[in-house]
Amino acid sequence: xxxxxxxxxxxxxxxxxxxxxxxxxxxxxxxxxxxxxxxxxxxxxxxxxxxxxxxxxxxxxxxxxxxxxxxxxxxxxxxxxxxxxxxxxxxxxxxxxxxxxxxxxxxxxxxxxxxxxxxxxxxxxxxxxxxxxxxxxxxxxxxxxxxxxxxxxxxxxxxxxxxxxxxxxxxxxxxxxxxxxxxxxxxxxxxxxxxxxxxxxxxxxxxxxxxxxxxxxxxxxxxxxxxxxxxxxxxxxxxxxxxxxxxxxxxxxxxxxxxxxxxxxxxxxxxxxxxxxxxxxxxxxxxxxxxxxxxxxxxxxxxxxxxxxxxxxxxxxxxxxxxxxxxxxxxxxxxxxxxxxxxxxxxxxxxxxxxxxxxxxxxxxxxxxxxxxxxxxxxxxxxxxxxxxxxxxxxxxxxxxxxxxxxxxxxxxxxxxxxxxxxxxxxxxxxxxxxxxxxxxxxxxxxxxxxxxxxxxxxxxxxxxxxxxxxxxxxxxxxxxxxxxxxxxxxxxxxxxxxxxxxxxxxxxxxxxxxxxxxxxxxxxxxxxxxxxxxxxxxxxxxxxxxxxxxxxxxxxxxxxxxxxxxxxxxxxxxxxxxxxxxxxxxxxxxxxx
Length: 594
What we know:
By secondary structure, this protein is mainly beta.
């Protein structure tokens, strides 16, 4: 009987917590993630993939602007783990960014709770594991931030929401890919393209063998859907298209775009887009959804094609025949670049941000810092294959940069990243950009490789103001779009070309600037931008979280994990009403069973 009383008290306390934490006025959203290995056969052969809550891809995080998001992550892998929330700006809190420059990793069998606010953001993003090439084995999922009801969206409310995660895929897992890179080898051509974790529909028996499960998306005829597409792959740009359907571009990584129809769009590694697609075709058969490799020899790479099925509820047959063709410009790269230039910011749309979308006149702000970041083909440093930015191959320190600053640990990094590429031999360094708080920084990304690159800056949306082939020069500024360049988090840089971005450094913290191509990133093509308020007030940055992990030079400060830290976080995450409600239910339980 006593055990029943204890169980009843615990049950009522649990119910009380749910009631209090999920009340209508409470802006907290809670998730539990268990990250583990499972066996899957996306390309027809069993292989080890990384799942979240047993799912591959992981569950969708679906929140609303200004929600406080609490995600408890349990690491059931056999190696360290960090989850990065790509495109979530982590305003005033780089502590939650989930990258080795800001966080100590979560050890195997440990859990750690991320807590952050999606402040003044809307749009389509994704999360993924940021260590050890793990994203090449999975662990990713979509992260959607919806508008609050009081903020209108610049299009009619869609009839439904569809998420499609595309990406190149290898049958080798991330540890095998890592070994290849460590041995100085290239990864080679991917084995295929996955769409929502599944292989291609068998549109052709030569390229697609029997026994591969494909993705089918069922829609209602006449309805309009918001289709969110994320390229979560390793290193391949993909052309995305839906057979016989126009795709009205509406949003990219948190910014509403000028609405234009596309029959296909190149989506580069790390990028996300939202399209409005109306199901206005006849239902004589299903339709192909295709993601095929770009910026490569497309004949040789034909197997690197993902195919899913768009199925109308009244469809009369299966899809058949050839796939819709990609742009026929293999030897003319201007088509893709002109398409990228056509993606512009909708300056008349409302938006969840401190300055309403379009009111931020970025073209009239004086630039305070200029950085020309050049990448070249991989180089040899100390006998090892490495990638570089401006002649520096980045080494992540044992003690995260932000943690070193907090506890004044010396010698962890150098605040000396050069404004222009080094002229001497490449170097291995933990070299960081010294960002000016409330400065306005211009970054030119110069790609002197023969393959496509894309770059991501954490903590901010950047204005994409120009791109062209050849070497950037100061005269190139005359071509900049100073009015409606798209604001986004991940930008493409074409082979033998440059892309210029502008960014307002108003978010204090330590922020990762990296190649999104996983092999380039793993081999050193990254740095961090350190932005410090010289006044050092808590108004511009949140304090170190209570549950911070310690490693490197501060490893002795780490205590064994215990449940009390999670409890402290719970009460901190809620408000005083949580405690009052909890006490009420405990009191009620005691009175019932006494």
